[in-house]
Amino acid sequence: MKETMFKWSVMGKPIRNAHYEKLSRFLTEKLAVPNELQLLESSEEGFAKDLGPQLTTAQSIRFDFPYPRLVFTTFEGFPADLMFLRSADCAVNQTGRWWLRNLLTEAIRRLIVHSQINFDLSGKAVVVGTGAGARASIMALVKLGLRHLNVVSIDKPAFDVLEKDFKRFCFNVDLNYIPPDNIKLLGREHTILINSTPMGAENTLLEDLTFFNYLKDRAFVIDLNFDSADSTLVKEALSLGKYVFTGLDLMFHKDLYWLEVALQKTADLQVLQDYFKS
């Protein structure tokens, strides 16, 4: 009897080809799932045209930057929390109907839970940015039970929009805007820092954040950037003995959650990490 071929796609620009190609091999070799992967580096102008054929041939589609925000307006089926997130990084065809998912939110939540760090829910969190990554981070922290969140951003109007959307879905949560000039005024009462802004010399926010005077001793740092291991923020956090997680750590949790929603398969985190190191 011929095995069913699982067909999936990744759309983005650029796409981390090596990662997804290895994930495809992981499905075959470790989970015994024959699969066919298509990588599509589409332009924003050509996104809708390139997406169309995938909706008739693929069983799941993952969306990398810059498409999570764009794809949100394309589909009708999604969980309620996506109304706040306004972005999706995965679509799954379930019995002929496409549903959107936000893998990043669940990945952040699982990373914190599985870190086995004695996480203080009574503390406050600092989230840097107001885009899709920041929204996913805020939702994950709220799901974990945090009630005091400070959002640092240079874009106050974007925060106002974020706050308006947030208040429609979350209650009894204290969400505050912190302008860059006030970072150094934050009290030493924060248990977590999540950075969703890009690395680079032009990002002056990160330099002020590296003082870390606002973090408790057992606090930890998550940087959503995939290649953030060599960033100043991560290096300074490690030098001060903070627990640090990068975008690559999150990617593994995203992959595991994707296996569940797209294939109803589970895998061990350590097995997945070891496979990618081999």
Keywords:
278 residues, alpha/beta, Rossmann fold, 2 domains, five-stranded mixed sheet, 11 helices, 40% helix
State which percent range the strand residues make up. 15-25%
| Gross geometry | globular
Number of helices: 11
CATH domain topology of the largest domain: Rossmann fold
Molecular structure report:
This protein is α/β, with parallel strands linked by helices. The chain has two domains: 6-101 and 255-277, Rossmann fold (3-Layer(aba) Sandwich); 106-245, 3-Layer(aba) Sandwich (Rossmann fold), CATH 3.40.50. Helices cover 40% and strands 21% of the residues. It has helices spanning 17-31, 47-57, 67-71, 82-85, 103-114, 132-144, 156-167, 205-209, 232-239, 247-263, 269-277, and strands at residues 6-11, 35-40, 60-63, 90-94, 97-101, 124-128, 148-152, 174-178, 190-195, 215-223, 243-245. The longest helix is centred in the last third of the chain and has 17 residues, at 247-263. It is globular. 38% of the residues are buried. The mean pLDDT is 89.
